Amino acid sequence: MNRKNIYISAMVTSLLAASVMGASTMVFAHGGAKGIVKERMDMMKSLADSMKELKGMMQNKATYDANKVREAAKVIKSHASDKMTKLFPKGSGHKPSEALPAVWSDWDKFKDLADKLSTYAGTLEAAADNASGPGQGSMMKDGGGMMKGNPMMQGNPMMQGGGMMGGAMQDPEALKSMPPMASFMKISQTCSSCHTDFRLKKKEK
C-alpha cells in the first residue's frame, strides 16, 4: 500500500470510528429518557446499529452483501431529513438529552446535515451493486480497491491532490456510480460533523 492509500485508509478509519462510536455513546445515556427525547435516542440507536453493520462490510470484516447495504441505507434514510429534525422541537434539550443548544441556535446547519444524511443514504442505496474489487465496499484492498482501475476515479480531483472529499464525491449523482464506500464515507463524515457540533461532549456532562 503506497503513502496515498495509507492516508486514505487512516481517514476512513477515523471517520468510521467517529461516526459509529459517537452514535453508540449516545445510546448508553438513555436512563430516564421519556417522550420525544427517548424517541430520538431510539432513532440514534437504530442509526448506530446500521452504521455498525455497514462498517463491518466496508472494512472487509464481514462479507459484503448488497441487499444488506441497501436495507441499512434505507434505515438511515428513514431517520434523516425532516424525520430527524421533527424529533428536535424547541425546548427539548433537557437531560438526559445530549443535544447541545447549538441544535436550535444554528438550526439551518443542523437541518442541512440531516438533509445530507438523507441524500447520501440514497446514493449508498443506489450504489450498493457497484463493483470495486474484492469486498465491494472496500477501497483499501488490492492496491486501493475503490481507487485502482476505476474509471470514475481517473483524473478525479480527489486523486490529484484535490482532497478526499472533493471533486466527484461532492456530486450525489456521481456518487451513485461510484463504489459504495464513497457514499458510506460521506454518511460517516456527515454523522461525525453532527456529533462534533451538536452533541454534548463527554467532558461536558
**CATH level-two architecture:** Up-down Bundle
| Low-pLDDT segments | 4-10, 20-29, 140-165
What about the largest sheet? Answer: none
Number of structurally distinct domains:
1
Helical run tally: 9
Number of DSSP-assigned strands: 0
Write up this protein.
- By secondary structure, the chain is mainly α.
- The chain has a single domain (3-204), classed as Cytochrome c/b562 (Four Helix Bundle (Hemerythrin (Met), subunit A), Up-down Bundle).
- The protein is 58% helix and 0% strand.
- α6 packs antiparallel against α9 (180-198).
- The radius of gyration is 17 Å and the shape is globular.
- The chain starts with a helix and ends in a 7-residue tail after the last helix.
Which SSEs are present, and which pair or pack?
Elements: H1 3-27, H2 35-58, H3 66-78, H4 82-85, H5 102-105, H6 107-127, H7 141-144, H8 172-175, H9 180-198
Structural key phrases:
205 residues, mainly alpha, Four Helix Bundle (Hemerythrin (Met), subunit A)
Summarize the structure.
By secondary structure, the protein is mainly alpha-helical. It has helices at 3-27, 35-58, 66-78, 82-85, 102-105, 107-127, 141-144, 172-175, 180-198.
